[in-house]
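just leaving the lab so this will be short. below you get a single protein, a line of residues and a line of whole numbers that encode the local backbone shape. id like you to explain what the token line says about the fold, in plain words if possible. thanks a lot i owe you, the record is right below:

…
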Amino acid sequence: MRKKIAIIGDRFMLPEVFREKIEKACGGNLDIRTLEAAWPDKPMEFGNAALGLDKVKEYFGDPDEVVNFIGDAEIFVTQLAPLSETMMQRLPTLKLVAVSRGGPINIDMAAAKAHGITVVNVPGRNASAVAEFTIGAILAETRLIRVGHEALRKGEWRGDLYRADRTGRELNEMTVGVIGYGNIGTKVVRLLRAFGCRILVTDPYVQLSAEDRNAGVELVALDELLSRSDVITLHPRVTEETRGLINKDTIARMKPGVIFINTARGPLVDYDALYNALVSGHIGSAMLETFAVEPVPADWPLLQLPNVTLTPHIAGASVRTVTFAAEQAAEEVRRFIAGLPPVNPC
């Protein structure tokens, strides 16, 4: 009997890439249907009690349209489409949901368990992309790339940036603090080692790899990292423990003039406290890739500061992220069809 697979991709995680990887992994005898959602050209939504999606953190797609599309499929592959309790009640044949994200935050996981639906995800799918982006962000701030670029765009030749009292610093003379040593943090550390900088890591739940220890990377408490680091870059997950981790108190413990990088998640930061520190100069400059509210309001005060680089949450976006995530999802589909346990169950 042909396995029925419903795929909802979007304009990043292309449905045809999912199909290609699944067909390559599983061979024939598949009944696959695909749908392309309009994200990221249109913004995603967040938990909505009125639609019965209050247990879904972020998603893209109308619940009725998603249910109608999945129909009698046994396997559903997606990135952003929501699945709530009431939606699952209408999908009695659904047995596997493969979410091509680091976490299944568009799925009501308690409901999935209650309905006997296996949910799998792709942890670390964009770890390499975010790590590379982070290094670029650090270099943009330490070597004044943003400052020089913005001046030239305005027709101003900033020759004064060659002055000893205004020029940037090299990473090989700096201490970089990495908060969070998971899939992304470990890759950031590995890339940083090539620059010869001193590297501090804080993460209460992990130990350094032997390779990093031998390279001189130090595992320290958060307070020590804050006080010693010339550059601080965030890479923890958002939990109750880490929400608002960067706040008035932790900023006060940072070295004056520190460079701050956030390519992780917006809720990790108190942006009012960050704004005040950037205005006062206690934080010398910042590169911000994620925000508490996305898209950011046009009148957001941080958009007006000259010592901030901002990008629209694109660190994890790369062609390799697309293909890698689709390959991992396809492998989970293959294992399900073959009766094997999942690699990354949620």
Summary: The chain is about 35% helix and 15% strand.
